[in-house]
Amino acid sequence: MSIAILKEPSMQELDLSLHDTAAARLSGAAADYADGAVVPPHRHARCQLLATLQGVVEVRTPAARWLIPPDRAICLPPATDHELLMRGAVRVRCLYLAPEVRPDLQQAPGVIAVSALLREIIAELALLSTDIETGRRGQLLSELLLEELDRPADAAYLLPWPQDGRIARVCQQLLDQPALDLTAQQWAGQLAMSLRTFHRHFERQTGMRFGRWRQQARLLHALEALNRGQAVLQTALDCGYDSHSAFTVAFRRHFGFTPSRARA
């Protein structure tokens, strides 16, 4: 199976069949993408661990969206339909794991923290492609990878996505215009729903209350903008915050670090 990279000047292609059918338990792939590049919907036969050395990747599945900066990685179980959108120039590094390597990563998508050491291990293994287990260095790095790899647990980078088209249109507009400050009552009116019905539908579709989902969408948008190097104050204003301080408090509470640290 080959995956064409859309919006990429060189129209790069990746042959995923090398990893889906590899005899080795672990294989890797490395690819660099231009800003705006899109990897269209596809799936893998093995669990995929995707990380970046530079830039932010937006990972979309039918049920959720994640932003993956260089200090995080996402685990995608086998047969998970997903697409990738590059937010800035991105250097992607992937590992493909057979089920017996880490059974705990095979169940549901999730994000893990990536230390400087783990990032370098993933980067080195990705360059070895399907030859990871053929040499002593690859074998040692593989063992170290399993020591450093945590279970997915970080929900701060997740944005649940609704299946209901009406609610999805609301969510998409909130993503496209993060500073938009329409109330839940106003959104309910646009959908010809009562406020109570809107809240019930929204929470059932996303697992989150409307206000929390909107804040999480704004903060993920902010993370991407900061990673591109945008100023903190401008990012705060673009995301609907009235002040630098209010934005900083919300950002730090959500991610566990300050906006200035997130800047590229």
Q: What are the SSEs and their pairings?
A:
Elements: E1 2-4, E2 13-15, H1 17-20, E3 26-33, E4 38-42, E5 47-61, E6 64-68, E7 72-76, E8 82-97, E9 110-113, H2 116-127, H3 136-148, E10 158-160, H4 165-176, H5 184-190, H6 195-206, H7 210-227, H8 232-238, H9 244-255, H10 259-262
Helix pairs in contact: 2-3, 5-6
Explain this structure.
By secondary structure, the protein is α+β, with helices and mostly antiparallel strands. 38% of the residues lie in helices and 25% in strands. The strands form 2 sheets. Strands 3, 4, 5, 6, 7, 8, 9 and 10 form an 8-stranded antiparallel beta sheet that branches. Strands 1-2 form a two-stranded antiparallel sheet. Strand 5 and strand 6 form a beta hairpin. Helix 2 (116-127) runs antiparallel to helix 3 (136-148) and helix 5 crosses helix 6 (195-206). It is globular. The two termini are 34 Å apart. Residues 1-13 have low confidence and may be disordered.
